[in-house]
């Protein structure tokens, strides 16, 4: 038995040595290679400072665009169309000839009355000469004068009827679609086209009566329409109704816009913003900094990295002998040739930590949104890369152009604008 005991302990000792070698091999293989990064790269985000800006107070409303002048061009006398002097959509000046009706009968009637009037005036002159000689009674001379006045009145009426056969533009503007054809019979009052004066153009809208102390004629007005969503049309408040509508308790207002390009048309639905005289200072940040969630809107505030999170310089690299042994083992298991260490390029930029902060948002203008609470004027917030980070995480701040924003996040940012 005593001869077998040493052999038994030799097997136990050999097993222990093999176990220690296996544990050491695992540890050495997991040790970072010399010159390695020693960890995953930090997510890269873009950041921007919170801004304190001065915004002009404003009132918002919706309304309808109206022509300064707009009518249906009609005929006052019945007749057959003999000539058309316009095309649909033409711009015309005041007094421009649009349509002519057949006027032979009216013209002949005018000539007949003119001949009768000429004869009556001659008779009146003769009667007056005879009256001075006492050859005729005064009543006969008065009857001749009455006949002249009657024929003059008939001539003016017939000339007016003749003038009604020419349909003219009552003011300068743009014509609508043509509604007549050559040879068509027009009844009295029948429309031939529309005429609109749209440069300048009016916008009619309403505001609650409580805003009356803030309003005055001449205030700037900004207008947007669905047809030109990226354009802002500027005008001014032209009129305030003297009465409040009892049914709605609102004030009727009218703005006037130049509309030189004639992009705005009567009947368009428009959104109006009245710019008031007072200004206020607000804390604002880029719209892209806000992440919208069902449980509340939030931003990531950039903070200096905590001291506890700073890497330990002494422990950040393994001892030299351990690194060399790990490299040798890696080369051995890789077939005797050590693979070169792969280093991931870390972009240049400032290291920081981020903190999620829930915010209350206010008015939004352009690319900025007002923050009522949740951040301070001296803070910096993450504006791109939010989908890659979480509360309390360390990040690397880089220029916004260097951030590889995922498509999903880009879509969220576009939808928030």
Automatic annotation (TrEMBL):
| InterPro entries in the cross-refs | Beta-barrel_RND_2, MdtA-like_BSH, RND_pump_MFP
Q: Which UniProt keywords apply?
A: Coiled coil
Q: Which domain of life is it from?
A: Bacteria
Q: Where is the Multidrug resistance protein MdtA-like barrel-sandwich hybrid domain?
A: 71-192
Coiled-coil segments on the chain, per record: 103-168
| Domain CusB-like beta-barrel: residue ranges | 203-273
- UniProt keyword Coiled coil present: yes
The yes or no answer to whether the keyword Phosphoprotein is present is no
Gene3D superfamilies xrefs = 2.40.30.170, 2.40.420.20, 2.40.50.100, Helix hairpin bin
Q: Which family does it belong to?
A: Belongs to the membrane fusion protein (MFP) (TC 8.A.1) family.
How is this protein named in the record?
Efflux RND transporter periplasmic adaptor subunit
């Amino acid at each position: 038995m005593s001869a077998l005991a040493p052999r038994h302990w030799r097997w136990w000792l050999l097993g222990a040595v093999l176990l220690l070698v296996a544990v050491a091999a695992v540890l050495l293989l997991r040790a970072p290679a010399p010159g390695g990064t020693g960890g995953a790269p930090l997510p890269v985000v873009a950041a921007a400072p919170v801004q304190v800006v001065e915004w002009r107070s404003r009132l918002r409303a919706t309304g309808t665009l109206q022509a300064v002048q707009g009518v249906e061009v009609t005929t006052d006398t019945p007749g057959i169309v003999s000539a058309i002097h316009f095309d649909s959509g033409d711009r015309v000046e005041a007094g421009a000839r649009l349509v002519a009706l057949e006027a032979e009968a009216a013209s002949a009637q005018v000539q007949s009355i003119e001949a009768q009037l000429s004869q009556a005036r001659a008779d009146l002159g003769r009667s007056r000469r005879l009256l001075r000689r006492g050859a005729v009674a005064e009543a006969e001379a008065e009857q001749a004068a009455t006949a002249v006045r009657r024929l003059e009145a008939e001539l003016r009426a017939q000339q007016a009827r003749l003038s009604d056969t020419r349909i003219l533009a009552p003011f300068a503007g743009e014509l609508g679609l043509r509604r007549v054809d050559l040879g068509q019979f027009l009844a009295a009052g029948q429309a031939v086209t529309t005429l609109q004066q749209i440069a300048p153009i009016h916008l009619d809208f309403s505001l609650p009566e409580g805003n009356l102390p803030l309003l005055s004629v001449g205030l700037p007005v900004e207008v947007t329409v669905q047809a030109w969503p990226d354009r802002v049309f500027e005008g001014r408040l032209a009129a305030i109704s003297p009465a409040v509508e009892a049914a709605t308790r609102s004030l009727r207002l009218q703005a006037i816009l130049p509309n030189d390009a004639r992009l705005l048309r009567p009947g368009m639905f428009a959104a109006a913003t009245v710019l008031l005289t007072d200004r206020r200072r607000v804390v604002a940040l880029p719209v892209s900094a806000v992440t919208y969630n069902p449980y509340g809107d939030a931003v990531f505030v950039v903070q200096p990295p905590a001291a506890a999170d700073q890497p330990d310089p002494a422990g950040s690299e393994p001892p030299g002998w351990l690194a060399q042994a790990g490299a040798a083992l890696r080369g051995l298991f890789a077939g005797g040739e050590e693979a070169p260490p792969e280093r991931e390029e870390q972009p240049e930029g400032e290291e920081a930590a981020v903190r999620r902060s829930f915010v209350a948002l206010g008015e939004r203008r352009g690319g900025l949104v007002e923050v009522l609470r949740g951040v301070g004027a001296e803070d910096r917030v993450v504006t791109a890369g939010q989908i890659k980070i979480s509360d309390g995480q360390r990040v690397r701040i880089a220029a916004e152009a260097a951030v590889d924003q995922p498509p999903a996040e880009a879509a969220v940012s576009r939808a928030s604008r």
